[in-house]
Amino acid sequence: MSVSTSSGHFVPKSGIGRGTGAFIYALSADETTPALAAPRHTITALFSCCFKCSCHPGWQPHFRSNADRAYNTLHFASKVVCQRVPLWKPRTTKQAEYPALFRCLILSLFCCQQPPFRGLFSPFVKFGVVEFGGKTVKNSSGYSLLNLMIGSEGTLGVITRAVLKLVPLPGKTVSLLVPFADMEQAIEMVPVIVEAQIQATAIEFMERETILFAEEYLGKRFPDTRNDAYILLTFDGRNAEQVRAEYQEVADLCLEHGALDVFIVDTQERKQCVWNARGAFLEAIKASTTQMDECDVVVPRDRVADFIKYTHEVAGILNLRIPSFGHAGDGNLHVYLCRDDLAEDEWKEKLSLGFEMMYARAREYGGAVSGEHGIGYAKKEYLKEQLGDTQIGLMRRIKKAFDPNLILNPDKVV
Q1: Which of 100, 153, 228, 232 makes the best surface tag, with the fewest CB within 10 Å?
Q2: Beta partners for 264?
Q3: What is the pTM of this model?
Q4: Model confidence over 139-191: pLDDT tens digits?
Q5: Which residue, among 280, 297, 283, 279, has the nearest Cα to 382 in the 3D structure?
Q6: Cα maximum dimension of the chain
Q7: Residue 267 has what DSSP assignment?
Q8: Is the dihedral of CA 199, 202, 205, 206 positive or negative?
Q9: Are 43 and 25 in contact (CB under 8 A)?
């Protein structure tokens, strides 16, 4: 059995979770709860990091009963492990990797848009330990405080226990790599697939330039780099026959709508070749430039092609290199502004202008400033422009109700 995360499966092994795609930081101090008391200006940190590494032993996944096992419910309960560090100066390599997290009191929970969490337990100064959600499959009882906590970016509380839904690994998985003459054709294929009611578990888009960066970065050849644009689709199911019927229908649709070929990615070697390259896109782009910043934007699926074309226009206007890739199936785009050989002042000016132009166009298309990575500090002003004073005011009042001393991840989000 496995626990779904944002980019894979969280597979319990030998009592300690392993996997990729999500990580939980649980941080506390004397202002939050006496149970985790620590001197002022220090933090008590317990984290479970499942981002290409093992979980911290303090977080032990376990079934609490045979009934939990039968109903695919996994519990994570924290064993308090104290590590005292000044807020302003990380002392370890792990802390240095996430300086923004360790500068302040924070709980950060990064998860998919349909998270596998059934329940969370969180201590509060005013309320004590509060349980949100539980093991029920359906729940329409009052406001969804569970989802409010999940989406709070660590600004509302500290998670001490989580109840997760388990999802079995699929019996068969196959991917299709589909080349097109240009990005517009590739992206316009996505709504055709969606309208055909074929459930692909992933629909990614990528441009030739980004694939070439990955080839150079990994030192390995991609199956095909002759064309300007590609979509990568994944299908999974209980058996090969079910999966074959779905990907064959999509392959035929793609060829009918201008695809130049369809490559079947069905062996372990092919899967590693394609998905390792996809997984290396970010690092490959980073390695191709002196400095970069990301516009993690989301737009309606029928405006993805328009937005990508607009990023090319912005690149021309600003004389700036702006590669991109993303999740065409849900409209979440990863757009990177590259500094290359620009002077510091010129880079900052163009970066700011580029962000303003792209976030404004996303709002025009009915999109949002973040589809995955959240707001933090850097996107606060863009979020305010998107939501307006009324919604930001509501969020600030919610923040004050949960965190009256404003000590949890201060100055972030709102």
Answers
A1: 100
A2: 176
A3: 0.70
A4: 888 998 988 988 899 899 888 888 888 888 889 999 999 999 988 889 889 88
A5: 297
A6: 66
A7: S
A8: negative
A9: no
